[in-house]
Structure formats: structure tokens, C-alpha cells
Design brief:
Elements: H1 4-10, H2 37-49, H3 63-75, E1 82-87, H4 90-101, E2 107-111, H5 116-128, E3 132-136, H6 142-148, E4 153-159, H7 171-180, E5 184-188, H8 193-196, E6 206-210, E7 224-229, H9 233-243, H10 249-259, H11 262-282, E8 286-290, H12 300-306, E9 313-318, H13 320-323, H14 335-345, E10 363-366, E11 383-387, H15 393-410
Parallel strand pairs: 2-3, 2-4, 4-5, 5-6
Antiparallel strand pairs: 1-7, 6-7, 8-9, 9-11, 10-11
The structure holds pyridoxal-5'-phosphate.
Length: about 425
């Protein structure tokens, strides 16, 4: 089997043409033409069966979207029988997959530290549709999760590492337990991407990938994918078709173009993020750096066992005592904390403030965890999330250091500094 770096160059290159170009061209399409009515009828049947590359209309596929689906199956599903679907954002890939796998009356277990909009989707659309969602502690073991199963539990939704707080789950143990109990497992593999983790090797039934992040890598396109075990494909494909979920040719091209350099970019994100994380670990005023690849991370051993490497996204927690932040004031809404965070984040030369991540540029954003946790409220100090881009890490360190100096100027306990 080819390694991911080689696969990323190798996949989705060919298109039937006498002129051989290195890249698959963009196909902009709505209408797809037939040579005969008989062919139209036959192709409609092939689309209904979900045959690869079959199309009667560009919502089903075009050569470039089919090539991207094929790439996903080969890379994210490497070594497993999987099929992939594309959606116009990571969130829409998640929501379509959940609609495909669940039905009214089902019970759903979701990690408490799940990506916020996924949480919202479960609590609004799925709730209205008659699916009940229960959130579980990100530190829950497979045994603890098994004890939560109800006869109606259909699916366990995982995210490892988790959004903002970066807990690592024992996914192989949870997936094995779930399979034994006839429950499906779905994982959001945004953080690691298939370059750094292969969740199908851990035994999950499906994974979702926001291609917006590291696959495309340039902060200029939105797309998501769900990759499922082959036997789950018919339900997913049907739901996808019923909702009309599809992507355009230009965006598919951008994602494929990003994929070619994903492995080298990932290694650069990884190395620079580790440098910054280690620098922050030594910096006064930082209570904790939350990065699974650091030995200080509570589930570092699981990380070492299951992951091939890390990415550019991690967090750090401000030391409340050092900055004079009262016990009951840790959220970014609290005026003194808000001023501190503004001093740290605003006016940075290299760190932008913005959502999403996985692009070439560095980002800094405070976490607003109070609305995002229901099982275990966040009780540590203010948490910042960093995405380390492709800039020189020394420049990033200087920039962040300037942010700490700016905080020091307004800190309520300057004597402590
Ligand atoms: C962990 C995680 N999953 C899913 C998504 C959704 O991806 P998209 O922005 O493409 O909708 C995000 C976006 O930030 C994310 O952080």
C-alpha cells in the first residue's frame, strides 16, 4: 500500500483525453448529456445504485468530483472498503451523515467537547426530528460509555482530539465495544487529517473530514466529506441525493490542488506548533499548554500509540493567579478578562483573529466554553486556541511575546510580573 504522501500525489490524476496534462481539469457542470434515451435510463439506474462515476446530473458527480471522492476513499479509507461523499462544508458533511445514519426514536451519544455547530445541530434539527442526544465526558473510557448505552442507542460520535480542549479518546477500545454492542461509531478527523491518523484502522464505521482545513490548506474554499464503510454507503448516498447535497467543480479542483502538498504542509505545521507549544510551556503566565504531542498532556500515551503525528492546532490556558484573574471570572465575557484577551490577541502582526483553521496562516482565538460544555463545565483559566501556520516560528514567538507584554501593561497585579 502506498504511503499517504505518495498517494496524495498519485490519486485523481487521470481523465480520458488524448492530451495528457498533469492535473485533472475543472468540470463546471449542471447538465450532463446522453447519446440516447436508453443510455439516460441506464445511467439513472447506475446513479441510484451509487455506481462510481455514474452521473445523470452534476449533483451526482462530474469527473472532478468523482476523482476527489476516489481520492478520499484511497487516503482516508486506506486499506478498508469505504465510500466517500462530498458536501459544501464540513458541517454539512456532518449533518448529512447523521441524518443518513439516524432515524426518529434513536439515541445518540456525542462527546461533550464536540465542535460547537455539531452540538447545535444535534440539539436543534435532530431533536426536532425525534433523535435524542446525550453528551458524554471526553475522558470517558469504553467501559463508562458502554454503561451509558440504551437499547435505542444507535451511534457514538467521537472527536479526538476534541475541539478546543484536545482530549484524546481511546477510539480503538470505544469502536470495539460499540461494534460488539451493535452501535455505530463516527469520528470527526479534522485535527489530524489522514496524514496523521487513520481512524478506519481504529475500527470506526465512518469519519468526517472538513476539507476546508488541511486538505485544501489555503483558507479559500469550504468543503467537507464523509467517508463510510461500504455497507453504510447506500443510506448515505440516498440521503445525500434526497437533500441535493453536492459541490462545484472549481471548489473540487482547489481541494485536490491543496491535497498535493498536504503532507509537507502538515509536517511544517506540526514542527512549528511544537516549537511554539514548548516555548509557551516555559512562559510565565501560562498555566497549561494543551497539546496532545506534549508529554504533559494527560492522554499523551494514547496519542503516541494511535497517531502518526500532530497538526498545527492547540491551546493554552492563562494562569489565573499570575494575571490576577478572580476564580469566578474566567470567561472572555468578563470585562477584566476581555481586556486581557484583547491585549493578547488584537494588533498581532502574524496571528489573525478568525474562525476555522488549517490554512497557511496563524490564528489566535479565545475559547468560549461556557455554552459548549454541559457534562463537565470548564473550570480552568481563560483558554486560547492557536493555529500555527507556515510562517517562521521565531517570528511567531516574537509576535506572541509582544502580546504577553501588552497583557502585562494592563494586568491588575503588575507586581506579580
Ligand atoms: C473539528 C471541526 N469539525 C468540523 C468543522 C466544520 O468544518 P467547516 O468549517 O468546513 O464547516 C470545523 C470547523 O471549524 C471543526 O473545527
Amino acid at each position: 500500500m502506498l504511503k499517504p504522501d505518495t498517494l496524495a500525489i498519485h490519486v485523481a490524476r487521470s481523465v480520458e483525453s488524448e492530451t495528457r496534462v498533469a492535473n485533472i481539469p475543472v468540470f463546471r457542470a449542471s447538465t450532463v448529456l446522453f447519446d440516447s434515451l436508453d443510455e439516460a435510463a441506464k445511467r439513472a439506474q447506475a446513479v441510484a445504485r451509487g455506481e462510481k462515476g455514474a452521473s445523470t446530473y452534476a449533483t451526482a458527480s462530474t469527473p472532478i468530483t468523482a476523482a476527489l471522492m476516489d481520492a478520499l476513499e484511497q487516503i482516508e479509507g486506506a486499506g478498508h472498503a469505504t465510500r466517500a461523499c462530498l458536501a459544501p462544508s464540513g458541517l454539512s458533511a456532518i449533518s448529512t451523515l447523521l441524518m443518513a445514519l439516524l432515524k426518529p426514536g434513536d439515541d445518540l451519544l456525542v462527546i461533550d467537547s464536540v465542535y460547537g455547530p455539531t452540538r447545535n445541530f444535534c440539539q436543534t434539527v435532530l431533536a426536532r426530528w425525534g433523535v435524542s442526544t446525550r453528551f458524554y465526558d471526553p475522558d470517558a473510557s469504553a467501559e463508562a460509555l458502554e454503561a451509558m448505552l440504551l437499547p435505542t442507542t444507535r451511534l457514538i460520535y467521537l472527536e479526538s482530539p476534541a475541539s478546543y480542549t484536545f482530549e484524546i479518546q481511546d477510539v480503538p477500545a470505544i469502536a470495539a465495544m460499540a461494534r460488539r454492542r451493535g452501535v455505530l461509531t463516527v469520528i470527526d478527523n479534522a485535527w489530524a487529517s489522514p496524514i496523521m491518523a487513520n481512524p478506519f484502522d481504529w475500527g470506526v464505521d465512518a469519519s468526517v473530514l472538513p476539507l476546508t482545513k488541511y486538505w485544501s490548506g489555503h483558507s479559500d474554499v469550504l468543503m467537507g466529506a464523509s467517508v463510510v464503510r461500504e455497507d453504510l454507503w447506500p443510506d448515505l448516498w440516498k440521503t445525500q441525493r434526497d437533500f441535493g447535497i453536492c459541490v462545484g467543480g472549481d471548489d473540487a479542483y482547489l481541494v485536490l490542488r491543496g491535497l498535493r502538498t498536504a503532507a509537507v504542509r502538515m509536517r511544517s505545521h506540526e514542527q512549528s506548533a511544537l516549537l511554539l507549544a514548548r516555548w509557551l510551556e516555559q512562559r510565565k503566565g501560562v498555566a497549561r499548554v494543551v497539546h496532545p504531542a506534549l508529554t504533559s498532556h494527560p492522554q499523551h500515551a494514547l496519542f503516541r500509540r494511535d497517531f502518526k503525528g500532530s497538526s498545527g492546532l492547540f491551546g493554552f490556558v492563562l494562569d489565573r493567579t499570575y494575571w490576577g484573574i478572580p476564580e469566578n471570572a474566567q470567561g472572555p465575557e468578563e470585562p477584566y478578562v476581555a481586556r486581557l484577551l484583547a491585549a493578547l490577541c488584537e494588533g498581532r502582526r502574524h496571528f489573525g483573529m478568525g474562525y476555522s483553521w488549517g490554512g497557511f496562516e496563524s490564528l489566535i482565538m479565545p475559547g468560549r466554553l461556557s455554552a459548549l460544555r454541559s457534562v463537565k463545565p470548564w473550570q480552568q483559566g481563560p483558554l486560547l486556541r492557536l493555529h500555527i501556520g507556515l510562517e517562521d516560528p521565531e517570528d511567531l514567538i516574537k509576535d506572541l511575546d509582544a502580546g504577553f507584554e501588552a497583557m502585562a501593561k494592563i494586568a491588575s497585579k503588575p507586581h506579580a510580573l
